[in-house]
Amino acid sequence: MQNRGLIKFFAIIFALVCVYQLSFTFVANSIVSDAKAFAKGDTAKELRYLDSIGKEKVYLGHTYKEVTNNQINKGLDLEGGLNVILQISVKDVLKQLANDSKNPAFNKALADAKANQQGNQDYIDAFFEAANAANVKLAAADVFGNRNLDEVIKFDMTNKQVEPIIKQKVQESVESAFKVLRERIDKFGVTQPNIQLLGNSGRILVELPGAKDIDRIKKLLQSTAQLEFWETYKIEEIGQYLMSVEEALKKTEVAVKEAPAKTNSIDSLLTDKADTTAAAKNSPFLGKMLAPGQQGSPFVGVFATKDTAAINAYFKRDDIKALLPANLTNVKFAWGKTNEKTPDQTELYALKGTRDNVAPLSGGVIVDATDTFDQLGKPAVSMQMNGNGSRKWEQITGAVSQQGNAIAIVLDNIVYSAPGVSKGAITGGRSEISGNFTIEETKDLANILRAGKLPAAAEIVQSEVVGPSLGQEAIDNGMISFVIGFALVLLWMVVYYGKTGFYANLALLVNILFIFGTLASFGAVLTLPGIAGIVLTIGMAVDANVIIFERAKEELDSGKTVQEATDYAFTWKGAMSSIIDANVTTAITAIILLVFGTGPIQGFATTLLIGIFTSVITAVFITRMFLDWSLSRNEKLAYSTSLTKTWFKNLNIDFLGKKKIAYAISGILVALSIFSLVTKGLNQGVDFVGGRTYQVRFDKPVSAPEVTADLVAVFGSAEAKVYGNTNQLKITTKYKIEDEGEGVDKEVNQKLYEGLKKYLPADLTYEKFANLYEGKTVGILSSGKVTGTISKDIKTNSLWAVLGSLFVVFAYLMISFRRWQFGFSAVVAVAHDVIIVLGIFSFFYTILPFNMEIDQAFIAAILTVIGYSLNDTVIVFDRVREFLDYNSSPDFKGLVNKALNTTLSRTINTSATTLVVLVAIFIFGGETIRGFVFAILVGILVGTYSSLFIATPVMQDTIGEKEGRKMAEFKKED
C-alpha cells in the first residue's frame, strides 16, 4: 500500500480527535448525574444547579455551557421533552400589511388560499394565485399600497412587482417571530434548546429536551402577547342592548327551559328589582347567565365556560350587530381568565373601543415587566411604559376615574383583570396586572412581555412529546440491540474468515469510534432511529470487507500468493469499483432522506451517511493496514477457515434458467400486494392523515375495545390499540385537530384524562397524567400532533423522496454502466421490492401484534430498502461489467449466470450479517422502532431475492441475447 505511513498518521490523528470530541459527552453526562443526585428528583432544582455552573470552567478550560455544546446531543426519543413545529399565520401577517383591508376580493383571496393550498405549497404562493384569479390589484391603496408600505409599493406596480416585496415583508415578520420565541425560550430555563427556521415556509422548529411542564410551555410558545388596555362599559350602558339581544334570540333560538335559581333577569342591571328570576326563564341568552354583574362591577355577567362559543356566535350575527345603538357601535365583547377554583365559569366583559374599533392603548408601549406580588400578597405582573404610553395611560386612567367604569387589561383577547381607578389619573406609566395567577404564570407572563409580542398567531401544526422514562427505556433497548448485533457480527466474521475476519473486526471497532466521534464533532443529534442507523451500518460495514475478502479468495484460487491476492483485491479492478458503486447508491438514498425527512428520520439519515463514509475508509485503509502489518510479520493469512473454505465453491446455478418461475412468483406476490392495497389499504399514521396520537400506560392491563368505546363517547371518533404490552395503549383521534389557539391542546388532554379516568389510579391527578417527570410509569408517556396542512406536506415530501431516489439512482447507474438497461432493471427490482413490502404491511397490519403504521419512519425504511437492494444489484452488475471487459465468455447469458454465482458468497454473507443485526434490533430495540425495523427486515429479504431473480434477468432480457453477444464481441475486438 502506497503512503502507508501517512495513512497511519492520519488514522491515529483522526482517532485522537474522535476520542477528544467524545470526552465532552462523558464529562457532560457526569455533571448531569451529579446535578440529578443533588436535586433528588426536583427538576427545577436540577436546572438551577446546571444554570449556576453554566459559565464555570469544568473541563480543559471549557465552561459547562461549552462542554454541552460539544457533546453528542440526544434526541427527544432518548432524552424526553417537547418537539413542535409552529406555523406563523402568514394570513394574519398579510392582513396586517394590508392594514386590515376591507376589500372583499382581497379577503376572498385570503380565504381561497387556505382552501386551495396544495401539499408542500406555501400559503403565500397560494394567496398570490388566488389574488390573481380574483383580479386583486395588490398595489391598490386599500390593499398593500397603503400608507404603511407606500415607500416601497407604488400604485402603478404590477402584481408581479409587488409579490417579492410582500414575500420579503412576510419573511421579516417570521424572522421577528423567531427572535421573539428564541428570547422567550432562553429565559424559560430549558437546557440545550434548539430553535430554527424551516426554509421560507413560515414554520419554526422548537426542540426542548428535558422539558416537563408541557401545557405551560405550549402556552408560552403560542401566546402572541397581544397586550391591550380597554375601557369597560358600565352595566347601565350595555343593559338595554342585551335586553334587545334577548328578545331577538327568542325568535330564532331554542330557549333554555329552566334557568338556575340564582339567575336574575337583565332588569337587575337597570333597576333595583330584587326578584325577577321568572323573567330569565325560557330565555336563550339570559338563561345561560349564571349570575349578572352588579352595579359597579366591571363585567356584564358570569356564564358557563361551555356556553362561551354559543354566545360568541350570537354576537357575530348580522341581525344582532344591527341592534347596536349609536353609542355602542365600537363595543367588543371579551371573556375573562378562568379561575382554577371555578374553571367551568367565566365573566363576560363589554369593552369600549376607539373610533377604529381598536384598543386605546396597546402593549407596544411596555418597556419592562417583572413578576411581583400585589397589595394582598397575590402573584401579579408589574409593567413600566415608555413616555408616549405614560401620557396616554394618564389620560385613560383620568377619564375612568371620573366616569366610574374600569380598565380591562387584555392579553390575547382574554381579560386578565379590570381594576377601577378611584384616586384620579395615574402618572409615571407604571401599571400592574393582577388576577387569578400562579407564581409560574406571572413569571411566564413577565417573560413574554419583556421578549415582545409575536407579529402574528403561532399555531402548533406538529408536535411530539416524549417522557423521560420512555427515553430511558429507548436508550436501554437501543444499547441492548447494539451490543447483541455488534457481538454477532464480530463472531460471524471470525467464524467465516478466521484471522482476516479478526482484523476486519478491529477495523469495525475503529469504525464505531469514528462514527461517534464524527457525530460529536458535527453536533449531531442522536435518536433511536439514529441508533438503528448505526447498528445497521455495522451490518453493512461488513459488506466492504466481505467484497474485498471474497475477491482475494478468488485470486488465491487462481494461483496468486496471499500478498498478490491481497494487493489485487484492494485495486479498482479488484473490489474498489464495486465498493464505491454500492455505497454511492446507498448514500444517494440517505441524502434524499436527509433533505426530505424531519426530526428522527434526519437523525437516521445522518448516522447512515456518516456510517457509509467511515465504513469505506476503515474497510479500505484500516483493514488494509492491519493486513499489511500481518503480512510484514510473515503471519500465515487465509481468507477462510477450515469450516468455510469449501463454501460457495464451484457453483454453477442456472439463475436465468429459473427466471420464468421467479417472474411467476413475483407476479403473484405483486398482484396480491396491489389487490390488498386497493381493497384493504394501508394503516396510515397521523403523519399522513393528520390527528393526535398518545402513548398511554396504565397500572394494570386494559381492554382496547372498551377504552375505544369510552373515548368515542368523549371525542366522537377515536381508536385505542394495544402497544407492546396489554397495560399500554396507542390512542389516536382527530378531535379539534384543525382548531387553533394555545388552550386547545390542554382541553383535548383534559378530555382524554376524563375519558380514561376509570382505568387510572384514583390518586392520579390531571397534572401527573399529562405532564412529564422522572420515573413516570402511568399516564401519557408520549404524544404527537400533526395538522392536516403539514400532513399534506409530509405526504408530498415522502412521495418525492421515493420517486427522487429512484430517478437519481437510475441516472447514476445509466451513466456508470453506460447503458440504460442497467438502471432500468435496477429500478424495476426496487419497485418490485417496495410494492411487496407495502403489500405485506397492508395485509398484516390487522394481524401482527406490533405497530405497522405508514409514517415518516416507514418511508425511511423504504428508502433504506431501496439503497440496500440497489447495493446488492450493483455488485452483480459490476461483475457483469468486469466479465465483459475481460471477455471471459461470448455467451452473454452464461456470463450473467457466472456473475451471479461468483458474487453469491458476498450476497449471502452481507445479507446474513445485516439480517442478524436487524433481528437483534427487532427483538430488543423496543416497541417504538419495531415496525420500522420490520419493514427493513422484510425489504432486505425481498431485496436479496430480487437482486438474484429479478434485476439481473430483467437486465438480460432488456439487453437481449443478440445485443449481449454484440457487447461481448465488441469487447473481444477491443
Would you summarize the structure shown here?
It contains 34 helices and 23 strands.
Strand content: 5-15%
How do the strands of the widest beta sheet line up side by side? 5-6-4-18-23-20-22-21
From the structure provided, what is the oligomeric state, counting identical versus distinct chains?
A: single chain
Helix content class: 55-70%
Q: If helices are DSSP runs of H or I spanning 4 or more residues, what is the number of helices? A: 34
Reported for the largest beta sheet, the result is: 8 strands, antiparallel
Label the structural class: alpha+beta
The end-to-end distance, rounded to whole angstroms, is 31 Å
Average pLDDT reading: 80
What characteristic shape results from the CA principal axes?
A: elongated
Low-confidence stretches: 257-267, 269-281
What Rg is obtained from the alpha carbons, in whole angstroms?
A: 34 Å
What's the number of extended β-strand segments?
A: 23
Q: Can you walk me through this structure?
A:
With 974 residues, this protein is an alpha+beta fold. The protein has 34 helices and 23 strands. An eight-stranded antiparallel sheet has the order 5-6-4-18-23-20-22-21. A hairpin with a 2-residue loop joins β15 (407-411) and β16. It is elongated. It starts with a helix and ends with a helix.
